[in-house]
Amino acid sequence: MEKSASGQCKERPAKLPVWQPVCHLDDLVPDAGVAVRAHGAQVAVFLIDDRLYAIDHVDPFCGAAVLGRGIVGELQGRPVVASPMYKQHFFLDTGECMEDADVRVCCWPARLAPGGVLQIACPGADISMEHSHAA
């Protein structure tokens, strides 16, 4: 997964499959993050109130792959993760940084496939025509 100079997510290369299996539901810890590798990128996956969220694992403020180890909570009625480095909060539903609206991480489409396998698609992938297995 690449980012443009502006930090916005680029669309996936056409040669990659849309959905990639990354782990099993049993590998996730409720209300905490787990780091996985999907489409050549590090992705942080969260299971909160039976809902899946997936964002970039790399903190854009420090460049370290730490967001999956951040503290999960709720601010303004929305789920967030606080970076363990400088404590910025990222909304899990949009990737937006609460403290700096000009900064965001990519959100990755996630679904639960039959057999409890978690699958991740690239940001920007056209998944509208696919059957959803979301939890």
Walk me through the structure:
With 135 residues, the protein is mainly beta. Helices cover 0% and strands 36% of the residues. It is built from no helices and 9 strands. The chain has a 3-stranded antiparallel sheet, with no helix packed on it. Strands 2-3-4 form a 3-stranded antiparallel sheet, with no helix packed on it. Strands 5-6-7 form a 3-stranded antiparallel sheet, with no helix packed on it. The protein starts with 18 loop residues before the first strand and ends in a 14-residue tail after the last strand.
How much of the sequence is in beta strands? 35-45%
Main sheet record: 3 strands, antiparallel
Gap between N and C termini: 25 Å
Kindly state the number of beta strands: 9
Helix proportion? under 10%
Spatial strand arrangement across the major sheet: 1-9-8
Number of helices: 0
Radius of gyration: 14 Å
- Mean pLDDT figure: 87
* Poorly predicted spans: 1-8, 131-135
Shape, principal axes of CA atoms: globular
Q: Give helix and strand order, one letter per element, not per position.
A: EEEEEEEEE
Q: Structural class from helices and strands?
A: mainly beta
Oligomer: single chain
